[in-house]
Write a structure and sequence with these properties.
- The structure is a homodimer.
- Chain A is mostly helical.
- Chain A has 2 domains: 3-82, Arc Repressor Mutant, subunit A, CATH 1.10.10.10; 92-171.
- Helices cover 56% and strands 6% of the residues of chain A.
- Chain A has helices at residues 3-11, 18-29, 37-49, 70-82, 92-97, 105-134, 142-171; strands at 16-17, 53-58, 64-68.
- In chain A, strands 1-3-2 form a 3-stranded antiparallel sheet.
- In chain A, a hairpin with a 5-residue loop joins strand 2 and strand 3 (64-68).
- At the A-B interface, helix 1, helix 4, helix 5, helix 6 and helix 7 of A face helix 1, helix 4, helix 5, helix 6 and helix 7 of B.
- The structure holds a DNA duplex.
Amino acid sequence: MSLRHGLLGLLAEGPASGYDLARRFQEALGTVWPAQHPRIYAELSRLAEAGLIEVDSHGPRRRKAYRITGEGLAEVRRWLAEGEVDHTFRMETLLRAYFFWLMEPAELRAHLERERAFYAETARTLRAYARAKDRGEWGTGPQVRAMRVALEAGIRINEALASWAEWARETDPMAPGSPGSPGAAASPAPAAAPPPEAEG
Amino acid sequence: MSLRHGLLGLLAEGPASGYDLARRFQEALGTVWPAQHPRIYAELSRLAEAGLIEVDSHGPRRRKAYRITGEGLAEVRRWLAEGEVDHTFRMETLLRAYFFWLMEPAELRAHLERERAFYAETARTLRAYARAKDRGEWGTGPQVRAMRVALEAGIRINEALASWAEWARETDPMAPGSPGSPGAAASPAPAAAPPPEAEG
DNA sequence: GAGCGCATGTAAAGGGTTACATGATTCT
DNA sequence: AGAATCATGTAACCCTTTACATGCGCTC
C-alpha cells in the first residue's frame, strides 16, 4: 500500500487539504496511482491519528489543510530509502494480449490500432509537458526536477507500448491463414484443447 | 475487474482446476495481474453460479476441474471486443519517482542502479523466453503466438524502464550543487514551502 | 510413517470504487 | 436567486491480501 506514502510525499512539498491532494493525485499521478477522495480523506485521518501529519489551518468552506510532521517526513524518507520496490505493474492492455487468440483477426487489428493511437497520443502530450518543464516554465526546484524524471518514465513507457501495438499489428500474429487461427468469422468454435466427452 | 475475464480466458484454452489457474496466474501473469488462490476459488464459484463455467471432472485429491461454457466463451469474447480498455498502470517505481527530490543524491543513485539492473535482467529473461517461442519450442498454436505478443510488450516495457533508470542516473537530476537539492546529509530540513507559524 | 507437494477452502482485515449526502462560498 | 464549484464526509459493496485450517496422495 503506497497511498499513505504518496500523500506524505505530496505533503512534504507543503500543506494541502484533502481536496487539493485529490486533485493532484488525479492530475499528476492519475494513471500510475489512481485515488478517489473518500480513500484520501480516510487515509488523512489515519495519518493524523498516527502523528505523521497534523492540521495546519482551517480555511473558508470548512477547508482543513494538513501539514507533514517531522515523524511523517522521516517516514517517507524511510520508505524511499528502504528500497523494497514492488515491481508488479497491473496493466489491462497486457492482460488482454494473452487472449488475443480469441479475437477475430479484423477485430484484433482494429483494437491494436486504437491502442497504438492512444499510447502515441499520450506520449505526445507528456513530451509537450516535459519540454515545457525543460524550458523552465514550471520553475527549476527539486520537486519540478523529480517530476521531470517521472515524466520521462511515462513518456518512455507510452512510446514503448505504442511501438509494441504497431509491431503487433504489422506482425499480424493471428492473421487468417496462419496455422491454428480462428477461421475468418467462420466458426465461433469451442477453442478448447480436450473436447468435452459429455455434458454433466 | 478483470480477474473474472482472466480466468475465463485461461479456461478457454482447456479445463483446469483452481490450483492450476493459481499457478498459471502466478507464472504467466504474475507481474501484470497478481492473483492469490483464495480470490481465484471464490471467483470460480461465482462464475460457476453464473453459468459461465461448469465442473468438468473430479480428480485425485478432491481436485475439481472446471470447463468454460458457451456462455462463458461468449462473455470473454464480448469483453475483448467491447474495447473499453482501462489504461491505468499502477507502478510503484513511477510513484516513487515523484518523490526522488526527498532522497539523498547518493541514495538515489544507488536506487536507480538497482532499478536499472532489475529491469535489464527481467528484459533479458523475457527475451530468452521469446526466442525459445520463436524457435517453436512451445508449439505454434494461436495461444502460443498470443503469448509471444504479450511477451514482446513485457520486453519493451522492461527495456524502456531500464533505459530510463540509466538515463536518470546519468542525468543525476538531484545532484549536490544543483539549485535546491537537499544539501549532502547536512540538514534533514522540513522541505515544506510555507514555514508553519506555530505548533498547534 | 514422516514429510512434501497437491488441492481446496474459510476468516479477517484492509484497500479501493461508486453512490449518496451535505454544507459553504463564489460567480453570474 | 440560482448555478457552479469548493470541500468534506458516510455507506455499501467489492477486490485483495494474509493467515489459518484441513485433507489427500505420493515418495522415501
